[in-house]
């Protein structure tokens, strides 16, 4: 939400921020430590609406005290009853100081400095990695700042930046400046305000380049995250989110924006996203009454794998069987007898008949993204599956899961 109170309601002084400490991070009224919020106008700390509602009452009884921040560093406006996405430098500075004050440290500054010096002296020589074109480059160490429970985003951005084809493409893009600045590339930037004019491509380009630059400081992806907030409202705030879900939204938005722009779209409506991650899934359905086969092909950007039941069931006191990614892939592509509600409508039999279905990877992507389903719902209860899944660091053989000739291997290193 675009909040009109970011300037008037966020005036917390440095002296008030300095008083924020873990020991006093509790509601001033009921002393509850559950979900406290600090008023960005006066610094008073109160509990959220789902505890005893003292933060909401404070805002209602004190006109102008609309903005507050919780420990996840989300900013909320009680006047608009929405999370705030259009922040200014003042709020960003408040967030940094509040986050620093709420952290606890058991080490003294002197011991910390000594440790840093020892690590610097004993650090090994910087390693080199060899690119496919034969060139070498040093392994960089630039990291991403955690903006508050944003590990899900940082892990995806770091993974994408380590895909050579992805990094090289975005690093070679020109800086996408506003059209009115004389640029020949008609790409908008994040400085525009409408959703149609936001450029996710530009922010991903800057992050990708920043992660592979020399430097001792970390990189803040706050501009990219701000755009994500506006494009995908469900990611607003600083709560924990699903990394796979974020990746799907990010790649989809990048693909759409590149198609709409003058850069990056091929004549066959492909982009760098589909060139790297795009594959084809083949579904074979057989009517068991007349043995008629039906075949369908669908585009994919990843595969979501269940953990086979046989690895989850065990007797009390027994260890789980060792499960590998190959076991999950075999279950995913194995022959399945369909339930009656899913029977195939056979055009030869003119009715729904008992059927079987099997999946194959018809065309492997250049980079295969595998998502493991770590949650299971039983009787409306969600359970997390913590079973370790083994996988090879290299040489994953997908031959048994593909249609003959389904290896793609072009343009990006071939089905990594």
Automatic annotation (TrEMBL):
Q: Where is the USP domain?
A: 142-416
Q: What is the lineage of its organism?
A: Eukaryota, Metazoa, Porifera, Demospongiae, Heteroscleromorpha
Keywords of this entry: Hydrolase, Metal-binding, Zinc, Zinc-finger
Enzyme class per UniProt: hydrolase
Q: Which GO terms describe its biological process?
A: protein deubiquitination
Pfam families in the cross-refs: UCH (PF00443), zf-UBP (PF02148)
Q: Which SMART domains match?
A: ZnF_UBP
Instruction: Show the ranges annotated as biased composition (Low complexity).
Output: 104-113
Instruction: Please give the Gene Ontology molecular function terms for this protein.
Output: cysteine-type deubiquitinase activity; zinc ion binding
Ranges for region Disordered: 100-132
The UBP-type domain extends over 1-106
Quote the Gene3D superfamilies the UniProt record gives.
Cysteine proteinases, Zinc/RING finger domain, C3HC4 (zinc finger)
What is the name of this protein? Answer: ubiquitinyl hydrolase 1
According to its UniProt record, the EC number is: 3.4.19.12
Question: For this protein, what reaction is catalysed?
Answer: Thiol-dependent hydrolysis of ester, thioester, amide, peptide and isopeptide bonds formed by the C-terminal Gly of ubiquitin (a 76-residue protein attached to proteins as an intracellular targeting signal)
Q: Which domain of life is it from?
A: Eukaryota
